[in-house]
Amino acid sequence: MRFASIVGARPQFIKMAPVSVLLRQHHEEIIIHTGQHYDYMLSTNFFKELSIPEPDYSLECGSGTHGVQTGKMLAAIEQVLIKEQVDWVIVYGDTNSTLAAALAAAKLHIPIAHIEAGLRSFDRAMPEEINRIVTDHISDRLFCPTESAHQQLLKEGITQGVSVVGDVMYDTLLSIQPRLVDHARSLLASLGLTPGNYMLTTIHRAANTDNAAAMQSIAAALNKVEMPVLFPAHPRTKACLQHYQIQLSSHVRLLEPVGYLDMLALQYAAYRILTDSGGIQKEAFLLGVPCITLREETEWIETVQSGWNILAGSHWQAILDAVAQPAPQPPQHNPFGQGDAAQRIVQSWL
Ligand code: UD1
Ligand code: UDP
To answer: How does 262-294 read in b/e, with b if 16+ C-beta sit within 10 Å?
Structure first.
Protein backbone atom coordinates (compact mmCIF):
# COMPACT_ATOMS: atom_id res chain seq x y z
CA MET A 1 0.00 0.00 0.00
CA ARG A 2 1.01 3.58 -0.51
CA PHE A 3 0.85 6.03 2.43
CA ALA A 4 1.27 9.78 2.70
CA SER A 5 2.44 10.89 6.16
CA ILE A 6 1.69 14.59 6.57
CA VAL A 7 3.49 16.56 9.26
CA GLY A 8 4.55 20.14 9.89
CA ALA A 9 5.33 20.93 13.52
CA ARG A 10 8.00 19.85 16.02
CA PRO A 11 6.01 17.28 18.01
CA GLN A 12 4.79 15.65 14.80
CA PHE A 13 8.32 14.84 13.67
CA ILE A 14 8.92 13.19 17.05
CA LYS A 15 5.66 11.22 16.74
CA MET A 16 6.22 10.06 13.17
CA ALA A 17 9.79 8.77 13.64
CA PRO A 18 8.95 5.29 15.01
CA VAL A 19 5.94 4.84 12.72
CA SER A 20 7.78 5.78 9.54
CA VAL A 21 10.60 3.32 10.10
CA LEU A 22 8.20 0.38 10.56
CA LEU A 23 5.80 1.48 7.85
CA ARG A 24 8.61 1.43 5.30
CA GLN A 25 9.36 -2.23 6.08
CA HIS A 26 6.01 -3.24 4.58
CA HIS A 27 4.69 -0.33 2.54
CA GLU A 28 5.59 2.69 0.49
CA GLU A 29 5.57 6.02 2.33
CA ILE A 30 5.84 9.56 1.07
CA ILE A 31 6.43 12.33 3.60
CA ILE A 32 4.76 15.69 3.10
CA HIS A 33 6.10 18.53 5.29
CA THR A 34 3.71 21.46 5.35
CA GLY A 35 6.39 23.90 6.53
CA GLN A 36 4.33 25.04 9.53
CA HIS A 37 7.62 24.91 11.46
CA TYR A 38 10.63 25.97 9.42
CA ASP A 39 13.40 27.15 11.79
CA TYR A 40 16.25 24.63 11.79
CA MET A 41 15.84 23.82 15.52
CA LEU A 42 12.09 23.31 15.17
CA SER A 43 12.24 21.20 12.03
CA THR A 44 15.32 19.92 10.12
CA ASN A 45 17.15 19.14 13.35
CA PHE A 46 14.52 16.52 14.28
CA PHE A 47 14.71 14.82 10.88
CA LYS A 48 18.47 14.49 11.38
CA GLU A 49 18.43 13.51 15.05
CA LEU A 50 15.70 10.90 14.62
CA SER A 51 16.90 9.67 11.19
CA ILE A 52 13.59 10.49 9.52
CA PRO A 53 13.91 10.40 5.72
CA GLU A 54 13.89 13.81 4.06
CA PRO A 55 10.39 14.92 3.06
CA ASP A 56 9.34 14.10 -0.49
CA TYR A 57 7.42 17.37 -0.52
CA SER A 58 8.30 20.52 1.43
CA LEU A 59 5.31 22.79 0.97
CA GLU A 60 6.83 25.79 2.79
CA CYS A 61 3.44 27.12 3.89
CA GLY A 62 4.98 28.92 6.90
CA SER A 63 3.27 31.04 9.54
CA GLY A 64 0.07 33.07 9.41
CA THR A 65 -3.31 33.52 11.01
CA HIS A 66 -5.18 30.25 11.49
CA GLY A 67 -7.25 30.77 8.36
CA VAL A 68 -4.35 31.80 6.15
CA GLN A 69 -2.03 29.07 7.41
CA THR A 70 -4.61 26.27 7.30
CA GLY A 71 -5.95 27.43 3.94
CA LYS A 72 -2.51 27.53 2.33
CA MET A 73 -1.73 24.07 3.63
CA LEU A 74 -5.07 22.67 2.50
CA ALA A 75 -4.56 23.90 -1.07
CA ALA A 76 -0.95 22.75 -1.26
CA ILE A 77 -1.62 19.30 0.23
CA GLU A 78 -4.55 18.77 -2.13
CA GLN A 79 -2.27 19.28 -5.15
CA VAL A 80 0.17 16.67 -3.88
CA LEU A 81 -2.53 14.14 -3.00
CA ILE A 82 -4.14 14.47 -6.44
CA LYS A 83 -0.77 13.76 -8.03
CA GLU A 84 0.40 10.97 -5.74
CA GLN A 85 -2.66 8.70 -5.58
CA VAL A 86 -2.05 7.28 -2.11
CA ASP A 87 -4.19 4.65 -0.38
CA TRP A 88 -4.02 6.27 3.07
CA VAL A 89 -3.13 9.58 4.65
CA ILE A 90 -1.60 9.50 8.13
CA VAL A 91 -1.91 12.56 10.37
CA TYR A 92 -0.55 13.18 13.86
CA GLY A 93 -1.81 15.11 16.85
CA ASP A 94 -3.72 18.36 16.69
CA THR A 95 -1.94 21.14 14.84
CA ASN A 96 -3.17 23.18 11.91
CA SER A 97 -1.11 20.82 9.72
CA THR A 98 -3.18 17.91 11.08
CA LEU A 99 -6.45 19.66 10.28
CA ALA A 100 -5.40 20.78 6.79
CA ALA A 101 -4.12 17.31 5.88
CA ALA A 102 -7.25 15.59 7.16
CA LEU A 103 -9.55 17.99 5.32
CA ALA A 104 -7.61 17.65 2.07
CA ALA A 105 -7.75 13.86 2.28
CA ALA A 106 -11.42 13.70 3.27
CA LYS A 107 -12.48 15.86 0.31
CA LEU A 108 -10.56 13.57 -2.03
CA HIS A 109 -12.12 10.45 -0.41
CA ILE A 110 -8.74 9.20 0.76
CA PRO A 111 -8.99 7.29 4.06
CA ILE A 112 -7.36 9.01 7.03
CA ALA A 113 -5.50 7.45 9.93
CA HIS A 114 -5.27 9.75 12.96
CA ILE A 115 -2.49 8.98 15.41
CA GLU A 116 -3.19 10.43 18.87
CA ALA A 117 -6.96 10.34 18.45
CA GLY A 118 -9.56 11.01 21.13
CA LEU A 119 -7.74 13.66 23.16
CA ARG A 120 -9.86 16.50 24.50
CA SER A 121 -9.23 19.53 26.71
CA PHE A 122 -12.93 20.52 26.54
CA ASP A 123 -11.82 24.08 25.83
CA ARG A 124 -13.00 25.12 22.40
CA ALA A 125 -11.11 28.39 22.62
CA MET A 126 -7.95 26.32 22.25
CA PRO A 127 -7.14 26.05 18.51
CA GLU A 128 -5.90 22.48 18.92
CA GLU A 129 -9.26 21.36 20.36
CA ILE A 130 -11.05 22.31 17.14
CA ASN A 131 -8.35 20.56 15.11
CA ARG A 132 -8.71 17.36 17.14
CA ILE A 133 -12.48 17.22 17.07
CA VAL A 134 -12.74 17.78 13.31
CA THR A 135 -9.89 15.39 12.53
CA ASP A 136 -11.34 12.61 14.68
CA HIS A 137 -14.77 12.97 13.12
CA ILE A 138 -13.46 12.60 9.56
CA SER A 139 -10.89 9.86 10.24
CA ASP A 140 -11.27 6.22 9.28
CA ARG A 141 -8.71 4.72 11.65
CA LEU A 142 -8.28 6.30 15.03
CA PHE A 143 -5.28 5.26 17.08
CA CYS A 144 -5.75 6.25 20.71
CA PRO A 145 -2.81 6.67 23.08
CA THR A 146 -4.89 5.95 26.19
CA GLU A 147 -8.05 4.19 27.25
CA SER A 148 -9.63 7.50 28.28
CA ALA A 149 -9.14 8.80 24.72
CA HIS A 150 -10.94 5.69 23.46
CA GLN A 151 -13.82 6.25 25.87
CA GLN A 152 -14.12 9.86 24.70
CA LEU A 153 -14.49 8.78 21.07
CA LEU A 154 -17.21 6.31 22.05
CA LYS A 155 -19.06 9.13 23.86
CA GLU A 156 -18.93 11.15 20.63
CA GLY A 157 -20.37 8.23 18.68
CA ILE A 158 -17.12 7.24 16.97
CA THR A 159 -17.06 3.47 17.26
CA GLN A 160 -15.62 2.21 13.96
CA GLY A 161 -11.90 1.89 13.29
CA VAL A 162 -10.87 2.83 16.83
CA SER A 163 -8.05 1.11 18.73
CA VAL A 164 -5.91 1.81 21.78
CA VAL A 165 -2.27 1.35 20.82
CA GLY A 166 -0.38 3.43 23.40
CA ASP A 167 1.51 6.62 22.80
CA VAL A 168 3.98 6.86 19.92
CA MET A 169 5.96 9.50 21.86
CA TYR A 170 6.75 6.77 24.39
CA ASP A 171 8.23 4.65 21.56
CA THR A 172 10.47 7.56 20.54
CA LEU A 173 11.46 8.24 24.14
CA LEU A 174 12.44 4.60 24.69
CA SER A 175 14.65 4.66 21.59
CA ILE A 176 16.66 7.48 23.19
CA GLN A 177 16.53 6.36 26.84
CA PRO A 178 19.78 4.30 26.87
CA ARG A 179 21.71 7.47 26.01
CA LEU A 180 20.01 9.72 28.54
CA VAL A 181 22.08 9.29 31.70
CA ASP A 182 25.44 9.91 30.04
CA HIS A 183 24.09 12.68 27.90
CA ALA A 184 22.48 14.44 30.87
CA ARG A 185 25.77 14.26 32.79
CA SER A 186 27.82 15.91 30.05
CA LEU A 187 25.14 18.43 29.08
CA LEU A 188 24.61 19.58 32.67
CA ALA A 189 28.36 19.85 33.20
CA SER A 190 28.58 22.13 30.17
CA LEU A 191 25.82 24.29 31.68
CA GLY A 192 27.43 24.34 35.13
CA LEU A 193 24.42 22.55 36.67
CA THR A 194 23.93 19.38 38.70
CA PRO A 195 21.01 16.91 38.50
CA GLY A 196 17.97 17.84 40.56
CA ASN A 197 19.18 21.39 41.14
CA TYR A 198 17.41 23.30 38.40
CA MET A 199 13.97 23.61 36.86
CA LEU A 200 13.04 23.43 33.22
CA THR A 201 10.31 25.47 31.59
CA THR A 202 8.68 25.75 28.17
CA ILE A 203 5.78 27.98 27.14
CA HIS A 204 4.16 28.28 23.73
CA ARG A 205 0.37 27.92 24.06
CA ALA A 206 -1.66 30.77 22.61
CA ALA A 207 -3.60 31.06 25.90
CA ASN A 208 -0.33 32.15 27.54
CA THR A 209 1.70 33.80 24.79
CA ASP A 210 -1.21 35.90 23.51
CA ASN A 211 -2.06 37.13 27.00
CA ALA A 212 0.30 39.73 28.49
CA ALA A 213 -1.05 39.30 32.02
CA ALA A 214 -0.59 35.52 31.89
CA MET A 215 2.97 35.84 30.60
CA GLN A 216 3.82 38.47 33.22
CA SER A 217 2.42 36.28 35.97
CA ILE A 218 4.32 33.17 34.79
CA ALA A 219 7.51 35.24 34.52
CA ALA A 220 6.93 36.53 38.08
CA ALA A 221 6.78 32.93 39.30
CA LEU A 222 9.96 31.98 37.42
CA ASN A 223 11.71 35.06 38.83
CA LYS A 224 10.74 34.04 42.38
CA VAL A 225 11.84 30.37 42.37
CA GLU A 226 15.05 29.79 44.27
CA MET A 227 16.82 27.64 41.71
CA PRO A 228 18.26 28.09 38.23
CA VAL A 229 15.56 27.82 35.57
CA LEU A 230 16.37 26.67 32.01
CA PHE A 231 13.96 28.15 29.51
CA PRO A 232 14.34 26.89 25.92
CA ALA A 233 11.98 29.31 24.25
CA HIS A 234 9.79 28.79 21.20
CA PRO A 235 10.24 31.73 18.79
CA ARG A 236 6.70 32.98 19.46
CA THR A 237 7.48 33.02 23.20
CA LYS A 238 10.71 34.90 22.72
CA ALA A 239 8.87 37.43 20.58
CA CYS A 240 6.12 37.92 23.14
CA LEU A 241 8.58 38.32 26.03
CA GLN A 242 10.13 41.17 24.07
CA HIS A 243 6.80 42.60 23.02
CA TYR A 244 5.46 42.65 26.60
CA GLN A 245 8.86 43.93 27.83
CA ILE A 246 9.08 41.16 30.42
CA GLN A 247 12.28 41.10 32.47
CA LEU A 248 13.62 37.75 33.59
CA SER A 249 15.95 37.48 36.60
CA SER A 250 19.50 36.29 36.00
CA HIS A 251 18.76 32.77 37.34
CA VAL A 252 16.24 32.28 34.49
CA ARG A 253 18.31 31.31 31.46
CA LEU A 254 16.57 31.94 28.17
CA LEU A 255 17.84 29.45 25.55
CA GLU A 256 17.19 28.73 21.90
CA PRO A 257 14.95 25.66 21.33
CA VAL A 258 17.07 22.58 22.00
CA GLY A 259 17.29 19.22 20.20
CA TYR A 260 15.32 16.16 21.23
CA LEU A 261 18.09 14.29 23.06
CA ASP A 262 19.10 17.48 24.88
CA MET A 263 15.48 18.16 25.81
CA LEU A 264 14.89 14.69 27.21
CA ALA A 265 18.17 14.88 29.13
CA LEU A 266 17.22 18.27 30.58
CA GLN A 267 13.82 16.88 31.60
CA TYR A 268 15.27 13.70 33.06
CA ALA A 269 17.57 15.56 35.46
CA ALA A 270 15.26 18.46 36.34
CA TYR A 271 13.89 19.03 39.84
CA ARG A 272 10.56 20.21 38.43
CA ILE A 273 9.24 20.88 34.92
CA LEU A 274 6.93 23.84 34.31
CA THR A 275 5.26 23.71 30.93
CA ASP A 276 2.19 24.26 28.80
CA SER A 277 3.36 21.67 26.26
CA GLY A 278 1.27 18.53 25.74
CA GLY A 279 4.21 16.27 24.88
CA ILE A 280 6.34 17.45 27.78
CA GLN A 281 3.59 16.67 30.33
CA LYS A 282 3.75 13.05 29.15
CA GLU A 283 7.53 12.93 28.98
CA ALA A 284 7.79 14.33 32.52
CA PHE A 285 5.52 11.52 33.71
CA LEU A 286 7.43 8.86 31.77
CA LEU A 287 10.76 10.16 33.09
CA GLY A 288 9.43 10.41 36.66
CA VAL A 289 9.80 14.17 37.10
CA PRO A 290 7.00 16.17 38.76
CA CYS A 291 5.33 18.49 36.27
CA ILE A 292 3.54 21.78 36.85
CA THR A 293 1.28 22.56 33.91
CA LEU A 294 0.81 26.22 33.11
CA ARG A 295 -2.75 25.69 31.92
CA GLU A 296 -6.17 25.35 33.52
CA GLU A 297 -6.91 21.99 31.91
CA THR A 298 -5.14 19.14 30.17
CA GLU A 299 -5.89 16.39 27.67
CA TRP A 300 -3.42 14.16 29.50
CA ILE A 301 -5.62 13.60 32.55
CA GLU A 302 -3.79 10.44 33.63
CA THR A 303 -0.72 12.50 34.48
CA VAL A 304 -2.84 14.58 36.88
CA GLN A 305 -4.73 11.60 38.32
CA SER A 306 -1.41 9.90 39.16
CA GLY A 307 -0.30 12.99 41.09
CA TRP A 308 2.67 13.67 38.76
CA ASN A 309 1.16 16.69 37.12
CA ILE A 310 -0.40 19.73 38.83
CA LEU A 311 -2.59 22.09 36.83
CA ALA A 312 -1.45 25.47 38.09
CA GLY A 313 -2.66 27.79 35.33
CA SER A 314 -0.74 31.04 34.94
CA HIS A 315 -1.15 32.69 38.36
CA TRP A 316 2.28 33.11 39.97
CA GLN A 317 1.12 32.11 43.45
CA ALA A 318 -0.56 28.92 42.20
CA ILE A 319 2.65 28.07 40.30
CA LEU A 320 4.82 28.63 43.38
CA ASP A 321 2.42 26.58 45.53
CA ALA A 322 2.64 23.73 43.00
CA VAL A 323 6.45 23.93 42.93
CA ALA A 324 6.47 23.59 46.73
CA GLN A 325 4.48 20.33 46.68
CA PRO A 326 6.48 17.19 47.51
CA ALA A 327 7.09 14.63 44.74
CA PRO A 328 4.28 12.06 44.57
CA GLN A 329 4.55 8.30 45.03
CA PRO A 330 5.79 6.39 41.95
CA PRO A 331 2.83 5.58 39.69
CA GLN A 332 1.51 2.01 39.79
CA HIS A 333 0.53 1.96 36.15
CA ASN A 334 1.71 3.47 32.88
CA PRO A 335 -1.38 4.64 30.96
CA PHE A 336 0.66 5.30 27.81
CA GLY A 337 1.13 1.65 26.81
CA GLN A 338 4.14 -0.57 26.33
CA GLY A 339 6.24 1.57 23.98
CA ASP A 340 5.14 -0.50 20.99
CA ALA A 341 2.47 1.82 19.65
CA ALA A 342 4.13 2.18 16.23
CA GLN A 343 4.24 -1.59 15.81
CA ARG A 344 0.57 -1.91 16.71
CA ILE A 345 -0.33 0.85 14.30
CA VAL A 346 1.58 -0.62 11.36
CA GLN A 347 0.30 -4.12 12.14
CA SER A 348 -3.23 -2.91 11.60
CA TRP A 349 -2.47 -2.77 7.85
CA LEU A 350 -0.82 -6.18 7.58
C1 UD1 B 1 2.00 24.89 16.85
C2 UD1 B 1 0.69 24.18 17.09
C3 UD1 B 1 0.64 23.67 18.51
C4 UD1 B 1 1.85 22.84 18.85
C5 UD1 B 1 3.11 23.61 18.53
C6 UD1 B 1 4.31 22.72 18.72
C7 UD1 B 1 -1.29 24.97 15.88
C8 UD1 B 1 -2.53 25.77 15.98
N9 UD1 B 1 -0.44 25.08 16.92
O10 UD1 B 1 2.02 26.04 17.68
O11 UD1 B 1 -0.51 22.85 18.67
O12 UD1 B 1 1.82 22.55 20.22
O13 UD1 B 1 3.08 24.02 17.16
O14 UD1 B 1 5.46 23.44 18.94
O15 UD1 B 1 -1.10 24.26 14.93
N16 UD1 B 1 7.57 30.59 14.26
C17 UD1 B 1 8.89 30.78 13.97
N18 UD1 B 1 9.57 29.77 13.39
C19 UD1 B 1 9.02 28.57 13.09
C20 UD1 B 1 7.67 28.38 13.39
C21 UD1 B 1 6.96 29.40 13.99
O22 UD1 B 1 9.45 31.86 14.22
O23 UD1 B 1 9.71 27.67 12.57
C24 UD1 B 1 6.82 31.69 14.91
C25 UD1 B 1 6.03 32.53 13.93
O26 UD1 B 1 6.07 33.84 14.36
C27 UD1 B 1 4.62 31.97 14.10
C28 UD1 B 1 4.59 31.57 15.55
O29 UD1 B 1 5.90 31.11 15.84
O30 UD1 B 1 3.63 32.90 13.77
C31 UD1 B 1 3.59 30.48 15.88
O32 UD1 B 1 3.83 29.32 15.04
P33 UD1 B 1 2.63 28.32 14.68
O34 UD1 B 1 3.14 27.19 13.91
O35 UD1 B 1 1.51 29.10 14.09
O36 UD1 B 1 2.13 27.87 16.09
P37 UD1 B 1 2.96 27.22 17.30
O38 UD1 B 1 2.85 28.17 18.47
O39 UD1 B 1 4.28 26.79 16.87
N1 UDP C 1 11.09 19.65 22.56
C2 UDP C 1 12.40 19.70 22.10
N3 UDP C 1 13.08 20.87 22.25
C4 UDP C 1 12.55 21.98 22.83
C5 UDP C 1 11.20 21.91 23.29
C6 UDP C 1 10.50 20.74 23.13
O7 UDP C 1 12.92 18.72 21.59
O8 UDP C 1 13.24 23.02 22.92
C9 UDP C 1 10.34 18.39 22.40
C10 UDP C 1 9.76 17.85 23.68
O11 UDP C 1 10.70 17.06 24.39
C12 UDP C 1 8.59 17.03 23.17
C13 UDP C 1 8.08 17.87 22.01
O14 UDP C 1 9.21 18.67 21.61
O15 UDP C 1 9.01 15.78 22.68
C16 UDP C 1 6.94 18.73 22.45
O17 UDP C 1 6.69 19.69 21.47
P18 UDP C 1 5.95 21.06 21.79
O19 UDP C 1 6.05 21.37 23.23
O20 UDP C 1 6.48 22.05 20.82
O21 UDP C 1 4.46 20.76 21.33
P22 UDP C 1 3.21 20.06 22.03
O23 UDP C 1 3.61 18.73 22.55
O24 UDP C 1 2.72 20.99 23.09
O25 UDP C 1 2.21 19.99 20.92
So the answer is: bbbbbbbbbbbbbbbbbbbbbbbbbbebbbbbb
